[in-house]
TrEMBL record:
Family annotation (PANTHER family): ACETOLACTATE SYNTHASE SMALL SUBUNIT (PTHR30239), ACETOLACTATE SYNTHASE SMALL SUBUNIT 1, CHLOROPLASTIC (PTHR30239:SF0)
Pathway assignment: Amino-acid biosynthesis; L-isoleucine biosynthesis; L-isoleucine from 2-oxobutanoate: step 1/4; Amino-acid biosynthesis; L-valine biosynthesis; L-valine from pyruvate: step 1/4
Protein name: Acetolactate synthase small subunit
Origin organism lineage: Bacteria, Pseudomonadati, Pseudomonadota, Alphaproteobacteria, Parvularculales
Quaternary data: Dimer of large and small chains.
GO MF assignments: acetolactate synthase activity; acetolactate synthase regulator activity
Start and end residues of each ACT domain: 20-95
EC number: 2.2.1.6
UniProt catalytic activity: 2 pyruvate + H(+) = (2S)-2-acetolactate + CO2
Superkingdom per UniProt: Bacteria
Enzyme class: transferase
Amino acid sequence: MSNTSVYAPSAKQEERESQTIACIVDNEPGVLARVVGLFSARGYNIESLTVAETDEAKHRSRITIVTDGTPSILEQIVLQLARLVPVRRVGVVTGHPQALEREMALFKVVAEGEKRVEAARLADIFRAKVVDVSNTSFIFELTGTREKIDAFRELMKPLGLTDVSRTGVLSINRGPEEGIGDRRRTGD
């Protein structure tokens, strides 16, 4: 007797990937809760979330979300975000040719002697700015890609890294055109 199934073989497992999504939303109470609720209700994870008002006259805010999932899940997230009433525009930033993504972080390093000298040398290489210094500690400010922030963090761990505070990913398009990436919906 054969162990082969008469049913079609299961679909090949899709690879998970990280994606940055930008949303322009009405700046009103409860909007962020609705966006985050969409993720939690469906079991989607948010790796990074930043939000701030960007147009005071129109009362609009920009929400930048980094999430992960299979391509089909990521597409569903974008489509579901676009259906929320307070969402004016949704765009996929990741992979867009004009997209620029950055994150800012503060690092506290407590060190003495050679470790202190090495921490200052590495900060200079990474172009981190010293924003506070004492006899036993530094606080460095670093802006760059997520990978750059992660690399700096890993190098500072053995040198006395005690605390990290990160903003989350911010994004904007290069060039003169306004935009938030690959637009999925407009509704100004």
